[in-house]
Amino acid sequence: MEYHPQPTAGEARPWAFPAPERGALPNGLTVLRCHRPGQQIVAVEIFLDAPLDAEPEGLDGVATIMARALSEGTDKRSAEEFAAELERCGATLDAHADHPGLRVSLEVPVSRLAKALGLVAESLRAPAFAESEIERLVGNRLDEIPHEQANPARRAAKQLSKELFPATARMSRPRQGTEETVGRIDAAAVRAFYDAHVRPSTATAVVVGDLTGVDLDALLADTVGDWSGNAGQARPVPPITADDTGRVVIVDRPGAVQTQLLIGRIGADRHDSVWPAQVLGTYCLGGTLTSRLDRVLREEKGYTYGVRAFGQVLRSTAPGSSSGATGAAMLAISGSVDTESTGPALDDLWKVLRTLASEGLTDAERETAVQNLVGVAPLKYETAASVAGTLADQVEQHLPDDYQAELYARLAATGTVEATAAVVNAFPVDRLVTVLVGDAAQIAEPVRALGIGEVSVVSG
Amino acid sequence: MPMGHTATAQAGSGGLTATEHRLANGLRVVLSEDHLTPVAAVCLWYDVGSRHEVKGRTGLAHLFEHLMFQGSGQVKGNGHFELVQGAGGSLNGTTSFERTNYFETMPTHQLELALWLEADRMGSLLAALDEESMENQRDVVKNERRQRYDNVPYGTAFEKLTALAYPEGHPYHHTPIGSMADLDAATLEDAQAFFRTYYAPNNAVLSVVGDIDPEQTLAWIEKYFGSIPSHDGKQPPRDGSLPGIIGEQLREVVREEVPARALMAAYRLPQDGTRECDAADLALTVLGGGESSRLHNRLVRRDRTAVAAGFGLLRLAGAPSLGWLDVKTSGGVEVPQIESAVDEELARFAEEGPTPEEMERAQAQLEREWLDRLGTVAGRADELCRYAVLFGDPQLALTAVGRVLDVTADEVKAAARAHLRPDNRAVLVYEPVEAAEETDGADGTDAHEGADK
């Protein structure tokens, strides 16, 4: 073939993260809307201020069961009828409970938005919470637990939370409850949680898609506008603390062919001015297969299909909140390596961290990371669902509506020195809790020899 | 649109158009303009997949796909990844039974770079391919196999089902990941021969979709790909044709450390690209798609004997498609109880066919899935390549949803009656064995935490 020199880039067309229009309905529901031409599948995200911290003592999982029960019948429709009507719209509806609160996500072709949003409104305004349906959901949830337990990545995540957070903190325990707590949940408990925490005045609906020809005001008034509730009371927000004393916990899986790694601690959330630098530095450490970790662990040594470093916000508080508590993100490195390579892979991983701390990032690395993180934005936000998801994340994290748009400017302005400092601070070699789900008989000794912290073994 | 409940007047083809071109070396090109967002998707399908592999070299097509990211004539090491990501693009490659695809989604102004990179490896991969890459990626792929299949409960179920449903020696008998032994056995010479056989412009389709100037794009494609010589090294794949139904019920019981009993089955279904395949898709959706399907209502809602129950469809163009039933049992429920309920539902469905409401729901679900797929430039580029490679006509991608909406309830019933029957399935039953360590439950009762959202 005839070789040609590598082409240079053309002129970039400007793109900005979309600015939503913010408003409120008479019932107090906050609404963010965003017109995205061409996106025929509309995404609706509804955030309910019903955090896991609000679950009553001993009833971990009640928020999850309530979230699932929202789509299991209303004052007008049985569970089967509700599911059938929703699918008749070609819609999908998901609801899940997490530390910041509960999220209901609807996706539907715009031509059937009115019908589907009517169903969602019905489920928020008048959920049936029938005893037999709650019993079924509880039974189903209990059946799911062993499946999650058997999954190495999920088992590792559960163990890390248990290790990091004090036993009294909700964050130390599984988001969706344990067999013991879920088993106690009944229809009355679900109803009580709903009555205490679900109301339009503390909820936000985000609507994104091609809204050409849609009278969204009328549509909202006819659907979620009907939902009513009292004002609700502010809850105290407990601070997030974690014990990141460097140590290793092996969750024993005799005979496992791989070891699942999850190495983490907590750090700054998006309200902290270090966030852009932390994002940039974390990307350079383990954002992709050409980042530092995979360059060695995957592309040089072949120990793994891929190892990633990431920061994921656990919960944020409004700036200047009365409790003075601040939010936090989980900062972690995860991946899996073949059993035999566990010791050598961790040894290399620590070497990568130490080298990063001693030598820092290069300007070229920082430049590539900025180009990627900023440059992929138009791709990443092509669909309505991705835009709605980020806008709803901003809402639940008490961030301004232009946060993401501003973040791109801040990333571009972050220098190599700041990014280095942030990532070294985020992943200090002696303050990392390492969870390994794997064959203890084979991996415990090589891992002890590394001196990355005291090693203990728990059963799988 | 005959059904009168389409999401938009022009659902699926909704104003989308595509043009087709062919270079002198045989490279087929499909272009589709869409200026809503300043991005462009490049997608390259090579007409080679695991069905082209020979005995003793399963997994080679996929291993080779990894090697395509290890540098080429003018691109060093991981340069392909570095350059695309450094340009604000995203990229990957995947391997299936019937094809290998490579794709980059770029900000518009970086489109030329992606074309240059794809052309460089199509024309000059062997200039960079060496033992070191081969050994490294062999280890990576073996770890991919462990992570995705071997170290996950039920992880090898699909592999076992295809091995049952497609007989020994059939090109679809093994899955793209291949066996550990064959991955170990593959040599650099195998990889070089694989490239020389299958990686040629006349064995590929390139689609570019998005915010593009078609004339300029075509000129770039001519410039970078035009001088790559075509060749006819490729042999046609082994014949994948099989009788329409299996003719007996095949069965395998797996005793493994899994969290619950499971009933899985693979049904032999009509080939992709036929109206019967769309009818079968609708039948599987009514029976086992979503939360209002017959199996979900029966097993999860009413009998409460299953944690989850559903059907999936693997569309195949070169062999019968595969309908995959997956039911995980609840608590102590035994498999025969599930199996007789499934048989009852399938028999009733074959007898009655879908109700008008069920047809409407199933078609609405499949329509949304199509709108989703065509709603991104990358999804559209992939579908255009799919229809060009497998069916010779990319335009079919833009009208696919219309064909699904055109199917009648009688056709769905006929598809179910012909195919969803006990003598046309391979059954896989999982019976858990207890691990000594898992008996106390003291530390074994919690659910997951989701650090990996």
TrEMBL record, chain B:
It comes from the Bacteria. SUPFAM superfamilies: LuxS/MPP-like metallohydrolase. GO terms for molecular function: metal ion binding; metallopeptidase activity. One of its GO terms (biological process) is proteolysis. Residues 434-443 have a biased composition (Acidic residues). InterPro entries: Metalloenz_LuxS/M16, Pept_M16_N, Peptidase_M16, Peptidase_M16_C. Pfam families: Peptidase_M16, Peptidase_M16_C. Keywords: Hydrolase, Metalloprotease, Protease, Zinc. Residues 432-453 are annotated as: Disordered. Residues 186-366 form the Peptidase M16 C-terminal domain. Residues 28-167 form the Peptidase M16 N-terminal domain. Belongs to the peptidase M16 family. This is Peptidase M16 domain protein. It comes from Streptomyces pratensis (strain ATCC 33331 / IAF-45CD).
